[in-house]
Amino acid sequence: MATARAPRRFYRCSCFCSENLYVVRYGLHVRFRGEQQLRRDYGPILRSRGCVSPKDFQQLLAELEQEVERRQRLGQESAARKALIASVYHPARPDVYTLLQDAALAPEFLAAAEYSASPGADLQGLFQWLETVSEEKRVFRVPVFTGPFCRALLEELEHFEHSDMPKGRPNTMNNYGVLLHELGLDEPLVTPLRVRFLQPLTALLYPDCGGGQLDSHRAFVVKYAPGQDRELGCHYDNAELTLNVSLGKAFTGGSLYFGGLYQAPAEPLEVEHVVGQGILHRGGQLHGALPLGSGERWNLVIWLRASAVRNRLCPMCCRKPDLVEDEGYGDGFTCEEPTTVDVCALT
Questions:
Q1: Which residue, 20, 67, 76, 306, has most beta carbons within 10 Å?
Q2: CA distances from 44 to 51, 52, 279 (A)
Q3: Prediction pTM value
Q4: Which has the closest alpha carbon to 210: 320, 134, 312?
Q5: CA distances in angstroms from 101 to 190, 193, 214, listed in the order given
Q6: Structure confidence by residue, pLDDT tens digits, 189-215
């Protein structure tokens, strides 16, 4: 008699609670282990950015301590929100919770995925379906969703935003948006998008970054609007690869900009958003978002992860990960021995 296979366990690295804490006021990511370490490592740059008085520093210290505590509670609080939403929330668009259908996807995206999965597919052949935004930076554009699906998804997201349901921050830098696994959209939308459609493309585009070995993700929608988040500082993602899809609405400004691989942009490459189209890039490609001019901008962001890559080196602390139990996909680490793969961050 066959026995059921135990669900795969994913973990996070312990550095999540001490590395890459973002201080919006000073536009700085910091490592935080305590007051003395903060003064020693960041005193000069903090003073140069306006953290001058003892009151300024004590306020910063309190904010960092609060952020560490928030990160420590994150997994359990997220699981509790997801359970509550599943039990009492009534969607406006139940159709977006059904298993992803081809009709929701742009014809070019379907063609690109079909070609990529075909025998003999190669990179040059794939380029007929993609726009190469930057060959040097390996940034590509591809239509992903149809207009009607973008509008349906946005309608559901706005309905949830206006509900009295609890909401978690999309990530450590954005304050407004939705975590898709909490809303129940991971299984019907994001997982099939990753497994059926994205992985064939990324296996050709990014074989050295684990593009053919994606086994988890973190997906969220970010919102930019007047009086809320308007821009995003330069950063890199906790992912091997990232897909960023514009969902709408009407807006001006807010373009993405890209620098080098783990290098600040001396001459940044600006990339405009096009509704329904996605930008694919390496997670380590430094990037940010320019200030919104007017309107509202909603984007679906999927951090694509390959444990075969990150099990060897955590992209956030650049050390072998110190594994900590977590909910769901965690941060994409596993206890398994990875297969041999070149680590993108080291190329």
A1: 306
A2: 9, 10, 36
A3: 0.92
A4: 312
A5: 12, 10, 21
A6: 999 999 999 999 999 999 999 999 999
